[in-house]
Amino acid sequence: MTKRDIKVVTDGLTYLEGPRWHQGALWFVDFYTYGVYRVNPDGSAEKVAHVEQQPSGLGWLPDGRMLVVSMKDRKVLRQEKDGSLVVHADIWDQCAGHANDMVVAPSGNAYVGNFGYDLMGGAPHKNTTLVLVRPDGSSQVVADGLAFPNGMVVTPDQKRLIVNELFGNRISQFDIKADGTLGPRRDFANYGELGDEGDVGKRIERATILPDGLALDAEGAVWFADTIHQRAVRMAEGGKILDEVHTAPDGIFAVGLGGADGKTLFMCAAPDWDEAKRTVAREGRMLATTVAVGHAGTP
To answer: What is the pLDDT of residue 43?
Structure first.
């Protein structure tokens, strides 16, 4: 295991997700201050949008307008040039729980995951969908049967979507068709099927990995946040672990690659994902370290 220096990029927040390197700056969301943030050159985190129903995944349309997931009302919002937020797509009927992470391909096609059930309320686990939102705001379900899809990347050729299944013990991938829809699911890495088990605690106990957040590098490996082991993991297709960054006592809940050379690994850190605890505490922070292989694909 490589020994690395880990620095704090920004702290004093609640629960960070969606780290993105865009136009020479780091962007992210903070769930419980309901904000989209950009890190300025002086290191300060500037709130650039307020999403009352809780922000999650971030991306940008080809014309530069930002898209952000509004979780609890299951919408994708669009920030106009004047800074205002408008509804880009209402995907309520295509989700079975909070809308969640999102990747926006260079084409402007956005792929959005969702919880599938009331996780925070203690409901039993159910598999769920991926939704395609096109640049014009139209939407459709393009995959089903996923165990809490969250972090996603689109490969540089825009022909493949890779997606974590947080409670599925696996990372999946799909071919992207010319119209933006997806081919059949296949494994990127699979540590054993968990079946139809509805008890989330039992799924976690049986899992080898709980992959959250996703970033692709120039060698075709992915970095993800392994939420049950307080680490970020670099994994090759097939499941071989190539590298890891340990962050105990912090847990890591999302990752991104960026920086001037694409070799800075940003890690969203917090003690846990407990909504009640994270809402009232300011223990969320962004960590960063340097890795050997640079960023590829989107985001």
So the answer is: 86
d(CA 49, CA 273): 23
pLDDT < 70 positions in the chain: 1-2
Question: Residue 202 CB: number of other CB atoms within 10 A?
Answer: 12
Token output for 22:
């865009």
Q: Domains in the chain and their CATH numbers?
A: 7-296 (2.120.10.30)
> Hey, is 123 helix, strand or coil?
coil
Asked if residues 141 and 94 have their Cβ atoms less than 8 Å apart, the reply is yes
* CA–CA distance, 209 with 294 (Å, rounded to integer): 23
Model confidence, pTM: 0.96
Judged by DSSP in three states, 201 sits in: helix
Q: What is the pLDDT of residue 121?
A: 87
Residues 112 and 269: their CA atoms lie apart, in Å, by 23
Per the CB < 8 A criterion, the answer to whether 55 and 68 are in contact is: yes
Query: How far, in Å, CA of 32 to CA of 15, rounded?
Result: 7
* Residue 178 DSSP label: T
